[in-house]
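I am writing to request your help with a piece of structural work I have in hand. Here, with my thanks, is the record as I have it:
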Amino acid sequence: MKEIKKYLLRRKKTFESLIHDTQLTNTSVYYHKLHVEIKKLDALFNLIEYCVPEFKHKKTFKALKKISQLAGNIRELQIEELSLKKYFKDNNLISYKNFLQKQNVKEQQKFYLFINESFIPKHKKLFNEVKRFIKKMDIKNVHAYLKKKENKINKILDTKDLPKSMLHELRKRLKLFYYTRKIIASKKEKKELYENDTLLKLLGQWHDKSIIAKHLKKAISSCKLNEDELLHLEKIRAKIAAAGEGLIGRINREMS
């Protein structure tokens, strides 16, 4: 399985480069790249476990999952701040802007602490341990795994007017399949995958708006803000939530 071994080495190089840059950058783009890179490793580890059952995906992925969660928390706050930027310009949400920035700093401190004190000292051999299981993989099992995942996705896609409760599940399954398929795809197939991922992009947009609306709802009920800011936040929340609802229609049309 040379191609999968090469894929692991590429993931290792990119991931370690991103971890090295942890203290050098603080943008939503950086945290998104790190989050995506870990999702690719998650997809790979799932595949390895299916092909080689003695590989323990959950145990191997535990620390990476923690990094992904911490990076995701920061990115969600940064996306929210970017989405509300035009409202901040009018000085209508000064207290809430300060609240978001404080939360961002708090989450970054958690992230840096985990990376520097828990992850880097204890996981230097992580990728070497994964590599030895790749040697035991069989391409027939890889194709069987992909077919199994594709069938489950098609079953969801066959559902008319998919309920919101299933949209997140569909997004997770599509992302897992997308990243797994790219592991063994040719350049032509990778291009086709990229060109045909409209549904995944729409689900991503819906997810971001859902997260922002959820954050705003929580802030409205728990943050100590003046009445004007609370009323303004509720109007923004309703607008973002409505935009998310509008995307559901587009998602269902894309599925049909």
Notes: The chain has two domains: 1-137, 139-256.
